[in-house]
Amino acid sequence: MKIIKTCLTAVISSMMIFSPMAYADKWSDQFPHIKATGDIPGDCSYEEMSKKNYKGKTLKINTHAIPVMGEPTALHAEQFEKLTGAKVEVTHTPAGDLYSKAMVPFQAGQAPYDIVFGFSNFINDWKRYLAPVPKKYMNSTEMKDVTKSHMGVSSWDGTMYQYPVDGDRHYLKYRKDVIDNPEMQKKYKAETGKDLKVPTTWKEYAEMAKFFNGWDWDGDGELEYGSAEVMKKDDLMFAAFFSRSVAYAKNPRTPGGFFFDLETMKPNINNPGFVEALTDWVEATKYVPPGGINFGLGDEIGSFGGGQTLFSFSWDDAFIAAMQDDSPIKNKVGTAPLPGANKVWNRVSNSWENQYNQAPYIVWGWAVGVAKKSKVKDMAFDYLCFFSNGANHQADLAIGRFGVNPFKNSDFDPNIYINSMGWDPEIANSYTQTLLDMEKSQNRVFPLRVPGVFEFTSAVATGTSKALAGQLSPQEALDEVAKEWEAIVSRVGKKAVRDAYAVGVKMEDNQL
Amino acid sequence: MNFKHKYFFLFPGLFVLIGILIFPIIFVVRLSLSGWNSYNPGLDFIGIENYIRLFTDDPRFWESFFRLSFLSVTTVILQYVIGFALAHMVWKDIKFKRFFRVLFLVPMMTTPVIMTVIWRTFFHESLGPVNDILSNFGLSPKWLTDPALAKFTVIIVEVWQWTPFMFLLLLAGLLSLPKEPFLAAAIDGASPVRKFIYVTFPLMAPISIGAIIIRLIEASKIMDTVYVLTSGGPGTATETSSFYIFIKGLREFQMGYAASMSFTYLIIMIISLTIIAKVLTKLLLKE
Questions:
Q1: Would you give per-residue pLDDT tens digits along chain B (287 residues)?
Q2: For a FRET experiment, which of A4, A188, A451, B253 has its CA 20 to 30 Å from that of A423?
Q3: How far apart are CA A387 and CA A142, in angstroms?
Q4: Which helix (DSSP H) or strand (DSSP E) does residue A98 occupy?
Q5: Which residue from A225, A308, A451 is facing B39, i.e. has the nearest CB?
């Protein structure tokens, strides 16, 4: 009897141990996208989704153009169709039109799309048209893995309106093979008298970028340059400017607003901290590749990812592109926090504080919601939950062009990148540590999420692009932006903007 | 026939006219008197507030309008001169006349957005073939990032894309000219230049005016080239009225304000094109 009991226990134990693997084999055979991990058990796994029956129902999705976010949307739609029998219609839209393509029917009281993709900073304008994420999904295994900061980015005052599918932040990317190269370090020291190391301030960043600008430092027969940055007007450039501004203008000792003074709603955008950042940025036009001031995000990814520049800073995509198997610089790049500054503006005392300051920018990123007027909300949420399930998410992370970046606590395990993506352990460790440090930082800046956010960011793009083009000085450009911001606040209503801004300030001041 | 039946037969045409022309214009006017935006959707009534803002507090609109005037007048003049030259060339009996006629029309048949993407690739300052070739001569112009040169680049693309349209209209005009004046000029021993100045050009005046006006109307709506090539940059160096209205309306979602700009722009265009047509008629049709 004892022998039978032991055998039975062994059989049951081995079934339990190997059952996920059995699913993995089964599902990864049908869906090669998840071949590295197989299905990962969870509330929205392949196994669970296969139990749903949405035959005869149609799900309509408006997403970004292929490949960034558009390609994973279409891929997971196809998988979802096979698993559930649903029909999924995917429409691809350029980034600049995602907002209006959803907003026009929303405002007209229609819901031509059940699911709309956009950016997380749309939340204030969109939230009244989106269905809050139901409790069932809030309690799912997948959702419990989402980091606190990305739960915050997807929510408004405690209610989640945007389903987390992506995590975004800006950080520094650099050519590790150059910065860590003893010969280059010697050469840099001999010519500048300074040490070549990962820059910790924007001034160091500029010095190194200038030094490595316009010569063939990697011996590939092509000229290389200092830095690739998003500088093209209306192509997310305002986010790049904020990344350069946080070091000078986000002072942990002056809570109560980075973009505005929450009490008075006076814009901070033209204070000396922001002006210093814009002055640095104008200087940066001298060490970007030719045509660099017309670089959009795609150009930046192509430039740094293709090995053209020493530095870059923005979303993960350029780094992931550089670390893909087909990249000429795979395992030759490193990550670090955004550079800081040796001084930071104190807007209360109206003076510079001469001490080191660094602040991560948890920039807005891809976000997605379900239309309140959708007639297939359950199916829509199931699709989103499936989109970001463990297996899909890990597979998506490995493909730079997908634009899916870490936003789950489990994403910060370096072994994911070492084992399934072939990253050098040192690089994987520094990457996950950089992201993790940003999660833990107490001096973060979150994206501006107020009514009419596009008017504010568009004014920044116009003003800063005038400075980059030499049409205005940095101070004049930002004075113009501040004047425009004041006009927008007055049009929208001070109270409405302040109430919305207060939610973001709470997050920045670590009160939420 | 019953008199009322006549009106019955007019209804389909009138219905279409009201639906696609009158109603949208009236709606734009109504929209321009509202504060419709992303946070306040709806046709509230704010009077002429948007117009006051436009005329007193938005120099960017007027800058973009003057930039547009410069770009559209320059491109249309160049298109006219080049189009006339090409049409004149294939009007004559030359070898492969039919081939050239089709060849000259090719740019117009391509999709503007796609062609602009290709031009942008050509003019890309670090990866494009144009600077790759010019670098052999020590040149690397900033086609898209120098404020003055970026305007020139927009002009090149526009001229390339739309000269064929001018060519087509002018060739049709040339082919319809009577032969007698040319015979008379030939008998009088007029040189080719005198023949062109005193016979061809005056006879082509009516069709030239029509072609220029049509192209001015089209050129004043320039949007896709700017959007794809420069996004209005660097800074605001290539921002035109339609692109600015697009930003305010569909990027910033200031629908009411964008409507007031659109309507103002429409009125200005109607007035200025009427004046231009009158001036051209006076200049070219002296007799």
A1: 566 777 788 888 888 988 888 999 999 999 999 999 888 888 999 999 999 999 999 999 999 999 999 999 999 999 999 999 999 999 987 788 888 888 999 999 999 999 999 999 999 988 889 999 998 999 989 999 999 999 999 999 999 999 999 999 999 999 999 999 999 999 999 999 999 999 999 999 999 999 999 999 999 999 999 999 998 989 999 999 999 999 999 888 899 999 999 999 999 999 999 999 999 998 887 65
A2: A188
A3: 11
A4: helix A98-107
A5: A451
> A308–B60: do the CB atoms touch at under 8 Å?
no
Cβ–Cβ gap B236/A465 under 8 Å: yes
Between the two ends of chain B, the Cα-to-Cα distance in Å is: 46
Peptide bond into A252 cis (omega under 30): no
Measured in whole angstroms, the distance separating CA A58 from the mean position of its chain's CA atoms is 30
Tokens 């990812």 sit on residue: A305
Least Cα distance to A360 among A304, A442, A300, A432 occurs for A442
Please name the residue that has the structure tokens 């070739």: B133
Dihedral angle at the C-alpha atoms of A266, A267, A272, A273, nearest 10 degrees?
120
**Beta-strand runs (E) in A262-349:** 266-267, 309-314, 333-336, 344-346
**Whether pTM exceeds 0.80:** yes
Do residues B252 and A458 make contact, with C-beta atoms less than 8 angstroms apart? yes
Beta A58-64 vs A366-370: how paired, if at all?
A: unpaired
Please report the sign of the dihedral spanned by the C-alpha atoms of residue A284, residue A290, residue A294, residue A298: negative
Do the chains contact at A454 and B35, CB–CB below 8 Å? no
